Amino acid sequence: MELDDLPRAEFAFPGPLRDKLVAAILSGAKTTTSALLVGYECANEPLPEVGERSAVVDSEDRRVAVIELTEVRVVRLADVDLQHALDEGEGDKSVAQWRAGHEAFWHSAEVRAELGDPDFIVDDETLVVLERFRLVHAV
After folding, report:
1. Beta bridge partners of 124
2. Are strands 8-9 and 53-57 parallel, antiparallel or unpaired?
3. Is the pTM here over 0.85, yes or no?
4. 10 Å Cβ neighbour count for 77?
């Protein structure tokens, strides 16, 4: 399958955070990611499945890598494990540190606008989609 034919994998919003995450994927430091289940529901999108491949896009909307999902889990936010947090490749040393950073992102104006809920907040019961992937190819 051609790179241009693959579905897009977008990490965060274009800008410094996306650039940091894409660099971590390309270096091999990032092998997991997290998303809100409600985000899939709002977009009326199916959950990702093991074996799916996608093209990672950078802040300039260039396709820079191919990743393949090796694991998909839906868990309560309170149940995110340390290994997942470490493998996100953002330098977090604890689940609490990982959660603080993710809560800041999920409570951002951009995410709230995407969800259509200006007061959206997460709590222990919020369902999170945890994905593990492998880097197949870097451009």
Report:
1. none
2. parallel
3. yes
4. 19
